[in-house]
Every structure is written in C-alpha cells, then in structure tokens.
Design a protein that fits this description.
The protein has 3 helices and 16 strands. The chain has helices at about 5-25, 100-115, 140-145, and strands at about 30-35, 35-40, 50-55, 60, 70-80, 80-85, 90-95, 125-135, 150-165, 170-185, 190-205, 210, 215-230, 235-260, 265-285, 290-309.
Length: about 300
C-alpha cells in the first residue's frame, strides 16, 4: 500500500469518526415537562432540591434515562452543581436533530435560577417561636449577700429572614421575655421580676442541608425595654422601675425540618446574656432601698414554625 492510499484511508476514517462524534453530540433528544417537576442534585428523592421547572418547559437531554431519572447539564455551575436530575415520569421525550442553542441553555439556566428562589435556602421566611430559658443570678445575689439561684422562664419571638446568599441569612426579630424568681435572704422571702419587649438581629449560616433537614448556627445581639423590680417581706412590698434599656448578646443553633413546600418546623437552643441595670431592691426587712445591676445569662430551648414565601 503506497503513501497516497494510506492518506486516503486515514482521511476516510477521520471523516467517519467526526460525523459519528458530531451526530452523538448534537443530535440530542429533547424533554418537555408534562407537569411541574423538581430538579435534584442527585438521582434520588432525598437529595437536595435545587429548584423547579414549570410545566411545558423544554430542555435537551444529554444522557439516556437511568433508574427513572434524566440528567440535565447546566451551562455554568449552579449552586455548586454542574448537572441536575429530574424524574422520568414528568418528562415527555422527543427526538432532536438540531444543536441545543445558547437561548435554550439560557432558558435552562433562567428556569433553574427563578425556581431556585422558591427553595427554602433562597426564600424570605417568617417564624414564630416560644420556649424556656434559664437565668442564673449568681453574680447579682453575691452582690447583695443573697443565695445564688436560677430558674426557667418563658420567652417568645417572631422573626423575618432575609436571604443574602444560598447559605447566609440576615434575621431581624422581635421578642418578649418574662421572669419571676425567688431570692432568699436570711429571715426574708424576696422575688425578682422582670418583663419587656425587645428586638434583635442575627447573622445565620446554614452549615448542612440534606433531604429537607438543615442545621443553622447564628450569632447577634439586640436590646429590650424592661420593667423590673423586687417584691419583699410579709406583707409583700413591691417596688419597680420601667424603661430599663437592656443590651443583649445572643448565640443560637437551629435544627429545621421541612414539613411541606413552604412550611418547616424549627427547634432551637442557645445562650442569651444581658444585664438589668439599676433595679430597685428592698433590703433589711423592707426598710432600706437600693439599686443594683443584675448580670443575667443562661441557656434557652424552644421551637416553632417557619413559613417561606
């Protein structure tokens, strides 16, 4: 075989391979959704939901169906993924002979982006919570010579979540707390009480999310306007003061479980630290009045419902 024949054979083989590659690459099937369908990060229903496609959406299918799922390639990484998966039963497949154009790719990207705003990680949220928190009076009681004590008390809050990214959320909330606890002094029974409304701001970061379950720590602070005072002696003598501004530090861990498309249950635990300043206190069987600061702090545990919109 001379050199010219070798060249012709090689050229023919190259042409066949090129045509085969081009046909395999560009003559792709197309899928059209017959109903709204979720886009998953892996071919199983417990994986992360990246977003949703609407009924009637059309897109190229780059690989054959496998185990009831179709693979969708993203033109650029989306939420850290280069591809997603969609259930077979939602897709009607038709043959294709044309190149998937840039406009189609943009539609895929746009649909994923718009639908992702409906996933819990990218939506606004409103939550209402209630729970118990502990208050430790050790430092304050030592100041007035009383026995240190602690107790559990009630607190309530409502919060609005503002998504800054897939993981970061700015949380703005309002809260109400109330406490009433006995303090013991030789020969007397006293009681410290306080209640008031406040506001807080938290920076929250979701560290884990899988199958509708997520873990989110947060940290922040705020302040409250409190009414606080002291009840002393028998018969009871009560003195109090209002409008005590109380700065607060707050650290919290949230465990969230999605109950549906827009509703979630959230359990939380954390630590709250604040100081009640210049609280009036009766001493020496109610005949002497003084004002002291009560540094307070303790753990809290609670839970409630979260609505995404």
């Amino acid at each position: 075989m001379n050199l010219n024949k070798i060249k012709r054979v090689c050229g023919a083989l190259f042409l066949v391979l090129f045509i085969g590659f081009a046909t395999h690459s560009w003559a792709v099937d197309r899928g059209t959704l017959e109903s709204d369908a979720g886009i998953y990060s892996a071919p199983n229903a417990t994986s992360q939901v990246l977003g949703k496609y609407k009924k009637g959406m059309s897109f190229p299918i780059m690989t054959p169906e496998k185990n009831g799922w179709y693979e969708i390639q993203f033109k650029t990484p989306f939420k850290g993924f280069n591809k997603g998966y969609i259930r077979k039963e939602s897709v009607k497949v038709s043959g294709g002979t044309s190149t998937p154009s840039a406009s189609v790719q943009r539609r895929v990207r746009s649909s994923s982006s718009s639908s992702s705003s409906k996933s819990s990680s990218k939506r606004y949220s409103f939550g209402a919570y209630g729970g118990l928190y502990t208050v430790n009076l050790a430092t304050a009681m030592t100041t007035v010579g009383e026995t240190a004590t602690s107790g559990s008390h009630l607190g309530f809050s409502a919060e609005l979540g503002w998504p800054l990214s897939d993981a970061f959320t700015l949380v703005i909330g309002a809260n109400y707390m109330t406490l009433s606890m006995p303090t013991i002094r030789t020969g007397q029974t006293q009681s410290l009480f306080a209640n008031g409304f406040g506001a807080h701001v938290l920076a929250a970061y979701t560290v884990m999310k899988s199958g509708g379950f997520s873990i989110t720590p947060s940290i922040g602070g705020g302040g409250s306007l409190m009414t606080a005072g002291n009840v002393n002696g028998t018969p009871a003598t009560q003195i109090s003061t209002t409008g005590i501004f109380t700065p607060q530090f707050l650290g919290r861990l949230d465990l969230e479980l999605m109950l549906g498309e827009s509703l979630a249950f959230r359990a939380n635990a954390g630590y709250r630290m604040f100081t009640l300043s210049a609280v009036p206190v009766l001493l020496t069987n109610g005949t002497t009045q003084t004002s002291i600061d009560f540094p307070l702090g303790g753990l809290f545990f609670g839970g409630g419902l979260l609505l995404y919109f």
